[in-house]
Structures are given as structure tokens and as C-alpha cells.
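By convention, the C-alpha cell line describes the chain's fold. To illustrate:
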Amino acid sequence: MATIHDVAAKAGVSVTTVSRVLNNRGYISETTRKKVYDSMDALGYQPNEIARSLLRKQSNILGVIVPSVSHPFFSELTDRVEYYAYQKGYKVLLCNSQRDPIKERDYIEMLKRNRVDGIFMGSHTLEVEEYQSLRSPILTFDRKIGEEIPFISSDNYEGGRLATERLIALGCRKIAHICGNLQLDLLANRRTSAFLDVVRQHGTEHLIIQTDMNVFDQAKYEELLSQLLKEHADIDGIFATSDIIAAFAIKECKRVGKKVPEEVKIIGYDDVSAARWVTPELTSIRQPVDEMGKLAVDLLCRQVEGENVDFANILPVELIVRDSA
């Protein structure tokens, strides 16, 4: 196996020069840089990343923990985080917690062992104290943890307000709001707060249906919506806090013979790509996923460099009108 000394000998430079090329430190001419890289390729040399990270005290790796990479929103968000991390010279370690506290704790320990430079926490299974004990810079998604760990989210309250006002403006008289379990301490609960404020302000009949604690269990959505339409046949509006739930609502309405949007108007949340794949196409509240991914990487990198960043980072949302409402 080739060593850094072999690379230096083949390139006709010192070991120190090879090290400076690998760590991008100091001035190195393009001619010398090319000679070093050509020698590495010819010898099949692979630098020891762990040793380099110990030397630099920086791994150029960011950890990302999400509750379910199969969920379209977190899939798209992770894609954007990885894209912008790579642009800044970082690689990403992706951890899929599946809302399992044991698994999430194991992943956090793995990220510690790999000396990641920062962690973007999109899963919130563990207790606050376990996040606060992390030494790496950390940024949370859609959850406030104390007053020292910054967070990023969309404007959940405004999203809930826009969706509910839209349904009422279209003439809905009885609206069902389907949301995640409100016992989870998430900023997404503000969508529900906005829903309640608007329907009470307008005197609109309404009801709230919560999923169970595993908010990503899609098998439960069909059962939940079937029961809703059976027990409340006069529902004429549905505001779901994810596009996936909204898509199941469209499917269930078709199954029981209710026309969308003529008899039931439906609005989702996130505006993932799948919102345009269903028929009718789904009206949704768009979270700015690209901007969120870019900002998440920027905030983590700035913390890695020792900068202070804003505690609350809330991005605007937008109502995207399509055929379902």
C-alpha cells in the first residue's frame, strides 16, 4: 500500500509539500499540486481521513439525523443539505432514526466517534438534555431546544393560517384538520394553533384529528381518513399537515364517491414533488426546501468557524393553488 513518502518521491517534492496539498494549506503552485495528485492517482494512494481530521481538528463531515428518509419532505430536505454541504467541501453522514430513541442515541454516539464538525437534527425522539450534552455545533429542525441551540423552520403559523383562510374563502362550512400528535413538542404544532384561531374567528365548524405518536406510519392514514369520512359525512374541507396525508385524503374521498374539489376541498403541507402527481393536483403550503437546506449548511459551517448565529431562523411559506382547493 502506497504511503505519503511514496507520493512525495514520485512527485519529486517533500512530504511536507504533499501534506500541504492534501490539507489545502499554504501556497502551492498549480503545477506542483497537479504533480502530487497525478502521483497519488498513479500509486492508488488514499489519504488516511481519520488521521487528517485529528491533525486539522476538523473532519469536514456533517451529521444529519432525520426521522424517516423515505418521507418525501425529509428526502428532499436531505438532498438539499447534502448538495450545499458538498459545495462547501463537506461530506454528509445520513442517519435514519425511524423515531427509535435507541437507534437515535446509537447514531449520535457514532457521530461523536467520527468527530463530525456539526449535526443537523431533524429527529426529536431523545430528551432535550441529550442534545444539550453534544459538543459539536448543532442545529435543530422544527424544534426549540433551550435558548442556546439554534433552530430552523418554516413559518408554521402563517402556513396554517393561509390554508385555513383558503378553505373558508372557498365556502367550506365544516373543516377537518389532520395533524401529527400534538404531544410532540414541535414547531409544526403552530399550524394547528393557526387553524384553531382562524376557524374560531370565522365561527366555522371544525374538528381536529391527530395521528398516533408515530406520525410517519402511512398505513394508519387510510384507516384514519376512512373513519373520518364515515363519522362526518358532511365534511367539506380538509387541511392536512403533510402532502402525504392529503394525498390519502384524495384517495379516500374517491373511494367513498366524494368529488374533489366539488364536494370536499383538500389542502396539504410541504409541497413536495408528489403534490403534482396525484389527481386532482394538490393545493399545498410550500416550505422553501432549497433555501432551508442552504441555510442549514451555512449556519452549521458558521458555527464550526466559531461564529455566533441567530437563534431563530424562520423562513416564509407560500400557498400553491392547484386543483384540489
